[in-house]
Amino acid sequence: MSGRLCRRLLRLGLPASSAGGWSRLSGAGLNGTGPPGAGRSGLSGGGRMNVFSREMKQRQKDWAAQLQDSQQYDYLRQEVGSRVADRVYDIARTFPLALDIGGGRSHIAEHLSKEVVERFCLTDVSQQSLRRRRPSEIPTHCVLADEEFLPFKENTFDLVVSSLALHWINDLPGALRQIHQVLKPDGVFIGAMVGGETLYELRCSLQLAETEREGGFSPHISPYTAVTDLGNLLGQAGFNMLTVDIDDIQVHYPGIMEVMTDLQGMGESNCAWNRKSLLHRDTILAAAAIYKEMYGSEDGSIPATFEILYMIGWKPHESQVRTPDAPCASVCFCCVHGGAISIFRT
């Protein structure tokens, strides 16, 4: 691979352990099984949206983590993790205890120091990902838990971070409310997730090819959250002093098969209930030709764009700045970064 990349454990109800210790905490639907009757898309028995198979996502992430060359697929998570860490450094304080939701191989902690975060709690639905986490100087406790059901007490963490995990959540508003709940007052949530324009080149090519060869198309790219909705979701969850911004990361591949192979290696294959289980060979060949014709570069490579949405939200506290006409002001700054940062895959 070649590439150019931009750059106190408290009492939580967890068993005592050394840094890097393990816990398996139970909660409703833990291990991605979801609520009873959640075997299809739509609303589950409890009225909760059920778009993704959490059990399938767990299996995908476990499979990807066990690949002998799994580290070569970490380039996107490393890049986004470093940018989330940069946003942590922008806040001039030390966080005694931080939580990384869906952190897997811990791509955020490796960019942080003990002077900024004293202790980390790392959660993921994939046990294999947690076992293969990247080294960090910060004492870390691993918890096998589903991102949809956080098994932590209220007002526990000073900082919550998440990188490229929330786009697989069935109930994103509910997940944000849980994050708000486990934060201490004046605690901050810093997250990154893929946005609605992610992989638009692949989506368009597959739709055109499938329509031409099979007379219709099925969804092969999972639905993503639009940036216009993110600020409202954070505000409804109770956060204030909001910041939302966007980056485009463009990865260049030799062809469409390399795009799909890398998505599998990242554990980012589609896990929507209404996904189509396979693609016909003729459809893939047609999609490859369409992709190269519509989006191909002069050097023969094809781009795949990842729209990354970054969000920062604070749990209200009396020490925070307030406007004269509002008891608790919520301000959302939306900044679109121009230009795409490129990574080249061979």
Automatic annotation (TrEMBL):
Matches recorded under Pfam families: Methyltransf_11
Positions of the UniProt region annotated as Disordered: 27-47
InterPro entries, A to Z: Malonyl-ACP_OMT, Methyltransf_11, SAM-dependent_MTases_sf
GO molecular function, one term: S-adenosylmethionine-dependent methyltransferase activity
Domain of life: Eukaryota
Protein localization: Mitochondrion
Listed Gene3D superfamilies: Vaccinia Virus protein VP39
Keywords: Methyltransferase, Mitochondrion, Oxidoreductase, Transferase, Transit peptide
Gene Ontology BP terms: methylation; mitochondrial respiratory chain complex I assembly
GO CC terms, sorted: mitochondrion
Methyltransferase type domain residues: 99-190
Residue spans of biased composition, Gly residues class: 29-47
CDD domains xrefs: AdoMet_MTases (cd02440)
Family: Belongs to the methyltransferase superfamily.
Protein name per its UniProtKB record: Arginine-hydroxylase NDUFAF5, mitochondrial
Originating organism: Astatotilapia calliptera (Eastern happy)
Taxonomy of the source species: Eukaryota, Metazoa, Chordata, Craniata, Vertebrata
Encoding gene, per UniProt annotation: NDUFAF5
